[in-house]
Specification:
Layout: H1 2-31, E1 34-36, E2 39-41, E3 43-46, E4 49-54, E5 57-60, E6 63-67, H2 84-96, E7 101-104, H3 110-122, E8 128-133, H4 137-143, H5 148-168, E9 172-174, E10 183-185, E11 193-198, H6 204-213, E12 225-227, H7 233-253, E13 259-264, E14 290-292, E15 302-305, H8 313-316, H9 332-342, E16 348-353, E17 361-363, E18 372-373, H10 377-393, E19 398-401, E20 440-444, E21 467-468, E22 472-478, E23 482-489, E24 498-504, E25 511-513, E26 519-525, E27 527-531, E28 538-541, H11 547-555, E29 574-575, E30 577-581, E31 584-586, E32 591-593, E33 596-599, E34 621-624, E35 627-633, E36 639-641, E37 646-648, H12 651-654, E38 659-661, E39 665-667, E40 670-672, E41 679-681, E42 684-686, E43 696-700, H13 702-712
Parallel strand pairs: 6-7, 6-19, 7-8, 8-11, 11-13, 13-15, 15-16, 16-19, 26-41
Antiparallel strand pairs: 1-2, 3-4, 4-5, 9-10, 12-14, 17-18, 20-43, 21-22, 22-23, 23-35, 24-27, 24-39, 24-40, 25-26, 27-28, 28-29, 30-33, 31-32, 34-35, 36-37, 37-38, 39-42
Helix pairs in contact: 2-3, 5-7, 10-13
Length: about 725
């Protein structure tokens, strides 16, 4: 009887255990959580594959996604101004684009995680999160050593990461600290966080400093991560940080997830002998020197930011520039991807890639044309789709587009001296490519643009001309991105007639006539818009007030000076340029590549109305019968901040770039079929109201829909 009871009790325990186990497996399956030996996971790596637990099994995916920044117009990242309602709307857009993953770089406000949790409760297909952990780059620059100041940077990095562990499990409260996320975190998004990507694009000097100062530091041997004997001190820093983060989550939540470290081409572990800039190939961060123990069952992966135009070896590597893809084209981008993949043993993600749909340009990809700027939204989308296929075909685990939204606060090296840094978020500078990587634009205007450059004058019907003559009327309007001009002429033959529009912004300089013509002005003009057909129209500048000339010919001495350009009122108007690269020397080719520049003053003809089927996002002007519409970016008029009505001062007086108030502009217009005929253009004054709060509305770019179709192929 006793034996029978023992058997019955034992069987009952077994049955209950099996039922409990079954219930647990069902609940885990519903949440997308897998548990083994008391450790829960939502994702893991397996050799070269990245796997996500769905419907009761780990499944391999090629993951597509987007990087989300922390800003919208009017704010810097540290202000964390994006609302929960905005995130929910964006998540729907991203979901509809067939993306799998959102990546963020740092700790977000509580409502970000709340929005992600709420969205995934109602979505049949969840949006996953790759959570980044930011390292204080200012401290890194100051210390020059990851272990400096008795490990202050390391400990802060780990504290931020362990706070994030608590945050994603909905168990954290962060105190208010200006410039950082804060508040009480209650949303448990741990079932949706599929990995950590720790750190930033490492400054090679920071890596070198760490390695130089810590040569006797022993290799790190932790519970979950350790180093190979070849690991550099910086790689030991990464191993310790990663191990302590994994340990914290296991000890406190019995949870682990795949982990990686941000890297980029500058600090990859490949050698690039034809790279002209020593800093771009001076040191390696090789995460192959970080090993996972058998206890770290979720595994390591590699994450890189890979763009097609930078560093220079992407253009000039003897190997990559000879790589031919399956399309039969020279494709250095794919050549690099394959080389990088072949030098890893773990899954590899391209955690950032993309191109900007900006008017301004900063660098060329000389083989593909996937340049850093001066690309239309359509070209942006096509380039992203092309690179996405390259990444997929090179067997990567996934790719995340940079970026979801445009970021008005950003700067670019070839425009940053010409604006006011603290005012950048208040206006949209299309000359700065870094502001326009997004698949979603923030266009000026609360619900739509105030003017469309499309040849339809209906949006000017309530406007009063600022200038009129027997020939034409000139109207002007302003928003946070452009100065808009509308000219209604009595007649205008686009094939034969030419239109001259002089503009004065700085009253103490300029030209009172166009040299070698009979055309003169009532006020000295700093700029001249010259419309002469769809292929040859330009905006020109008085060389005395040309920031490109002053920067590169006078200040930096990278190009030869022209004494005549230092003189006021020469009658000259010259082309407007943006710098792309100083002279460079290619060591393997033994070749000097001269200074390169982009003529940004060329005006592009086309329909600039986003709602029109022929929309061309780079279009500057359009002509329909005798209706001429033009839009000019503020920076091309040397307006350094339109919101506070500031312009660039006299360069030679200031011996550099300074700013002063602008009361308004003088402008006039004249059209003729024979510029040799003498004419005096009367110019009239016009001005605009400044602002402290920009108006804007969201718009999905043409690139969004192209990328949507590209992502769909990999579902």
């Amino acid at each position: 009887m006793i034996i029978k009871r023992i058997v019955i009790i034992t069987l009952s325990i077994v049955v209950l255990a099996l039922v409990a186990f079954g219930v647990h497996r069902i609940l885990s399956s519903r949440k997308g959580i897998y548990t083994i030996d008391g450790i829960s996971m939502v994702a893991k790596t397996d050799n070269r594959s990245f796997l996500i637990y769905q419907r009761g099994a780990f499944n391999e995916f090629f993951l597509t996604g987007v990087n989300i920044g922390a800003t919208q117009p009017g704010s810097f990242p540290g202000e964390l101004a994006i609302s929960k309602e905005t995130y929910l709307r964006w998540f729907q857009y991203i979901h509809d684009m067939h993306a799998d993953v959102i990546r963020v770089y740092t700790t977000m406000m509580p409502h970000f995680y709340e929005a992600l949790y709420e969205f995934n409760q109602t979505s049949k297909r969840p949006l996953y999160l790759m959570q980044g952990v930011w390292i204080n780059e200012y401290d890194a620059r100051e210390l020059g050593d990851a272990f400096g100041d008795e490990g202050r940077l390391l400990e802060t990095f780990i504290k931020d990461a362990t706070d994030l562990v608590d945050i994603i499990h909905g168990q954290a409260t962060l105190p208010h600290q200006y410039g950082f996320a804060y508040g009480t975190y209650t949303a448990d998004v741990s079932p949706y966080v599929i990995g950590w990507i720790l750190g930033v694009e490492w400054d090679p000097l920071f890596v070198v400093g760490t390695n130089s100062n810590n040569q006797t530091r022993p290799i790190y041997e932790g519970t979950y991560l350790s180093n190979t004997i070849e690991a550099s001190p910086f790689e030991r820093f990464l191993a310790e940080a990663g191990d302590r983060i994994i340990t914290y989550e296991v000890e406190n939540y019995n949870f682990m997830r795949p982990l990686s470290f941000t890297n980029w081409l500058t600090t990859d572990h490949l050698h690039h002998p034809n790279e002209p800039d020593e800093k771009e190939d001076m040191v390696s961060v090789n995460t192959e020197n970080i090993l996972a123990s058998s206890s770290f069952i979720s595994g390591l992966f590699a994450a890189y930011h890979v763009y097609p135009y930078y560093p220079e070896f992407m253009n000039y590597s003897l190997t990559y520039r000879e790589h031919i893809d399956d399309r039969g084209n020279i494709n250095p981008y794919q050549g690099y991807l394959k080389d990088l993949y072949d030098n890893h043993t773990k899954p590899v993600f391209v955690a950032e890639f993309g191109v900007p749909a900006s008017r301004g340009k900063t660098h060329d990809a000389i083989h593909s044309g996937f340049n850093q700027g001066f690309l239309s939204e359509k070209a942006q989308g096509e380039a992203i789709a092309h690179m996405l296929q390259d990444i997929h075909d090179a067997d990567y685990a996934g790719a995340f587009v940079f970026a979801w939204q445009d970021e008005w606060f950003k700067r670019t090296w070839n425009t940053m001296d010409f604006d006011i840094s603290l005012r950048r978020p208040l206006w949209s500078n299309v000359q700065t490519n870094e502001q326009h990587f997004g698949l979603m634009a923030f266009d000026p205007g609360e619900s739509g643009r105030i003017r469309h450059v499309d040849g339809d004058p209906s949006d000017w019907q309530d406007s009063h001309p600022v200038f009129s003559s027997s020939q034409l009327e000139l109207h002007i309007a302003y928003d946070e991105r452009y100065v808009y001009l509308y000219i209604h002429a009595e007649s205008f033959d686009f094939e034969f007639d030419q239109l001259f529009i002089p503009i004065m912004t700085n009253r103490d300089q300029g030209n009172d006539a166009i040299k070698d013509t009979g055309i003169s002005f009532s006020h000295a003009a700093d700029f001249l818009i010259h419309i002469r057909g769809s292929e040859s129209s330009v905006m020109l500048v008085d060389p005395y007030y040309d920031p490109f000339y002053f920067m590169y010919h006078e200040l930096l001495n990278l190009l030869p000076p022209n004494p005549l350009y230092r003189t006021k009122n020469t009658g000259l108007f010259v082309s407007m340029y943006q710098a792309l690269s100083a002279e460079i020397y290619l060591p393997q080719d033994d070749l000097i590549i001269p200074f390169s520049k982009h003529e940004t003053g060329v005006l592009i003809y086309g329909n600039a109305n986003p709602d029109h089927p022929d929309y061309h996002s780079l279009a500057d002007f359009y002509v329909q019968d005798a209706h001429i519409e033009i839009k000019i970016p503020w920076q091309m008029l040397n307006i350094s901040d339109p919101s506070s009505k500031m312009m660039l001062s006299d360069f030679y007086r200031e011996n550099g770039f300074a700013h002063e108030p602008i009361e308004g502009m003088f402008i006039g217009a004249y059209h003729t079929s024979d510029p040799a005929i003498a004419y005096h253009i009367h110019m009239t004054t016009t001005t605009w109201e400044g602002w402290e709060t920009p108006t804007y509305h969201e718009r999905l770019k043409q690139s969004y829909f192209i990328v949507k179709e590209a992502f769909k192929q990999y579902r």
